[in-house]
Amino acid sequence: MSATPSTMLELGTEAPDFTLESVNGGKLSLNYADQSKGFVVMFICNHCPYVMHIEDELLSVANEYIGKGIGFIAISSNDVDKYPEDSPEKMAEKDYPFPYLYDEDQEVAKAYKAACTPDFFVFDENRKLVYRGQFDDSRPKNDKPVTGKNLRNALDAVLDGRTIPEDKQTPSIGCNIKWKPGNEPEYFG
């Protein structure tokens, strides 16, 4: 389990558009979030211990904030040839209250400069990045409770129209995205 931090995409960046296959059938684009008060794009996968560690609380946060008008989109960009547990077939076994999309060519992960799982990006209703970073400061084996406080605080700020100061944004830490051979982005060390 390698601890890789977020790249911390520049605040104010417009959400890169995409159209990806949903594991529940059909394609979904970023337009899915157009009617929301803000939205979360998160890079996750099935096998990552960091994702599994927060999964229950992530579902609680998503269910709570979907009810408040926040959209959630999950994307897996891992190389499924080397990590078959992250395949669309296995992804479809998850019962998430939000779309779970497969980024086969890894271009969406590159567009967001995603580096790890989980990696969270929060956008306002104008598709501008207002938060990127950790779910909370709990990690597998660090004995801190999983609360989702950082993501909750960011979503509350979006709903209240408040700015989230950059110095209050901490990089996420997780497993590195499993890039296909020769497909590693320049920003990935």
Record keyword descriptors for this entry.
Glutaredoxin, alpha+beta, 22% strand, single chain, 189 residues, 10 strands, seven-stranded mixed beta sheet, three-stranded antiparallel beta sheet
CATH class: Alpha Beta
CATH level-two architecture: 3-Layer(aba) Sandwich
Oligomer: single chain
| Total DSSP E strands | 10
Radius of gyration: 15 Å
Q: Please outline the major beta sheet.
A: 7 strands, mixed
Spatial order of strands in the largest sheet: 3-2-6-5-4-8-9
Number of helices: 4
Number of domains: 1
Q: Determine the mean pLDDT.
A: 95
Question: Into which percentage range does the β-strand content fall?
Answer: 15-25%
Condensed summary:
The chain has 189 residues and is α+β, with helices and mostly antiparallel strands. The protein contains 4 helices and 10 strands.
Tell me what the structure shows.
Helix content is about 20%, strand content about 20%. With about 190 residues, it is of the alpha+beta class. The chain has one domain: Glutaredoxin (3-Layer(aba) Sandwich). It has a 7-stranded mixed β-sheet with strand order 3-2-6-5-4-8-9, covered by helices on one side. Helix 1 (about 50-65) links the parallel strand 4 and strand 5 (about 70-75). The radius of gyration is 15 Å and the shape is globular.
Walk me through the topology:
Layout: E1 4-5, E2 19-22, E3 27-29, E4 38-43, H1 49-66, E5 70-76, H2 88-91, E6 100-102, H3 107-112, E7 116-117, E8 119-124, E9 129-133, H4 149-160, E10 173-176
Parallel strand pairs: 4-5, 5-6
Antiparallel strand pairs: 1-10, 2-3, 2-6, 4-8, 7-10, 8-9
